[in-house]
Amino acid sequence: MTTYAIGDLQGCHAEFVELLERLAFDPSRDRLWLVGDLVNRGPGSLACLREVRALGEAAVTVLGNHDLHLLAVARGGASLNRKDTLASILEAPDREALLDWLQSQPLLVRRGDDVMTHAGLLPQWSVEQAERLAREVQTRLAGERSGAFLEAMYGNTPRCWHDELAGLDRLRVIVNVFTRMRFIDAEGCLDFTAKEGLDSAPPGFAPWFQFPRDDEVRLIFGHWAALQGKTAGRRVRAEALDTGCVWGASLTALNLDSGERTSVPSRQRR
User: Fold this and answer.
1) Could you tell me which residue ranges the Calcineurin-like phosphoesterase domain spans (predicted)?
2) pLDDT at residue 51 greater than cutoff 90
């Protein structure tokens, strides 16, 4: 059995199918990890959701910011953005089944020393703490008031984690760490202004993976296409897998057992 982790699909269904063929992926034998952002911006968001869901136990995914945006539009009263490509999902006959499945997905997946989240892991959090915090959000998403949570989920404050945070403020920071984090300061406060490469870091901030941790876990993440799959200056074991398929670059898989990477070129316009 081989386990592969694949970067952000963002609706790039044709490339996803091609990559699985290149890997000779066999769902009866192999396993697939997806770093989230299955949907949005690309042309095949509906097909991506259906494909991953149909793989059943052969595939696991974490929620990304675009996945949560879809849920917020469908069930939290948020509005579509001009560049969204989510209409096909919202109008699909199997819409509710797909949304129910997506809403039940976690923010963190762990297998031994391998930990997968969409955006990364705050260095101030142990893996065990991160697992507990991820479950807090998953419990709220599964609850009767999930719509109200989805409506109030996004926002840039608070920017810093504190153990005493409560209510929506607490959940919002957790979601932002797992799905939006790029640059942080030494205290773990998040910056939301810079979204490009490492040279766009604001004063006093650095990529989260350039801060040390107290463990040796391998962190699998996506979200940051501008990194082009590289984590320069890293001080932790971090594997960046968003190689910008939706922006015209490539879709990448990492063999978690051998460390080998396999990519297929994007079919999207740059």
Assistant:
1) 1-139
2) yes
Task: Classify domain 3-265 at the CATH topology level.
Answer: Purple Acid Phosphatase; chain A, domain 2 (3.60.21)
Contacts of 130 (CB under 8 A, 6+ apart): 108, 115, 117, 121, 122
- What integer pLDDT is reported at residue 154 of this predicted model? 87
CB 235 within 8 A of CB 209: yes
Whole-number Cα distances in Å, 242 to 99, 157, 229: 23, 26, 6
264 backbone dihedrals φ, ψ, rounded to 5°: -125, 145
Do 17 and 253 form a contact (C-beta atoms < 8 A)?
Answer: no
Ordered alpha helix ranges (H), the chain: 13-23, 45-54, 65-75, 87-90, 95-103, 127-141, 146-152, 167-180
Q: Rounded to whole angstroms, how far apart are CA atoms 4 and 180?
A: 23
pTM score, two decimals?
A: 0.97
The DSSP call for residue 226 is G
pLDDT digits (tens, 9 = 90+) for 187-234: 999 999 999 999 999 999 999 999 999 999 999 999 999 999 999 999
Domain ranges of the chain: 3-265
Contact 49, 20 (CB under 8 A): no
Percent helix, strand and coil across the chain, each rounded to 5?
35, 15, 50
Spatial separation of the C-alpha atoms in residues 65 and 89, rounded to whole Å: 16
